[in-house]
Amino acid sequence: MTRQRVFRNRANGAAADDLWSGPLAEWVAVRCTAGRGCGRERAAGRRRGGMELRLFRYFLAACDTLNYGRAAALCGVSQPALTRAIQKLEGEFGGAFFRRKGNRMQLTALGRLLRPRLQKVLENADAAKVTADAFAASAKAPRD
Predict the structure, then answer these.
(1) Could you count the other beta carbons within 10 Å of the beta carbon of residue 142?
(2) Which of 47, 85, 113, 140 has the most C-beta neighbours closer than 10 Å?
């Protein structure tokens, strides 16, 4: 399948060379010349790879509720978005976190193994944020 990407620079309208041509690059069109569709392409400038703390929060909410719908409500996202995020995280860790049995959801061995570790990661990230905020506040305070 041959894919053709067309990008335009907002400043001068010139075609960009590739997907990562800079902050002003705008994804204008993706056209597949084959008979079947090519699916969605990433917009220019979007980050690839790496785990996000947000995904850890979604996973832990799902662990606490054992229900994607209730976990999504706790996190303030839609249920399909939470499901896709957890699937992305499962792909990065290489296994399923949950097993469904009828209407019930259970943690798999991988889910049980990762739950306390990811909880600790989030606690450390939150503590680092509090420390950084306190440092920033003390740096702004007038000194006598």
Answers:
(1) 4
(2) 85
Q: Does residue 115 share a domain with residue 57? A: yes
Question: In angstroms, how far is the first alpha carbon of the chain from the final one?
Answer: 69
Q: Do 62 and 95 lie in a common domain? A: yes
pLDDT tens digits in sequence order for the chain, 144 residues long: 444 444 444 444 544 444 434 433 333 233 333 333 333 333 333 445 567 899 999 999 999 999 999 999 999 999 999 999 999 999 999 999 999 898 899 999 999 999 999 999 999 999 999 999 999 988 886 766
Q: Is 122 left (phi over 0), alpha (psi -120 to 50) or beta?
A: alpha
Count how many domains the chain has.
Answer: 2
pTM of the model: 0.62
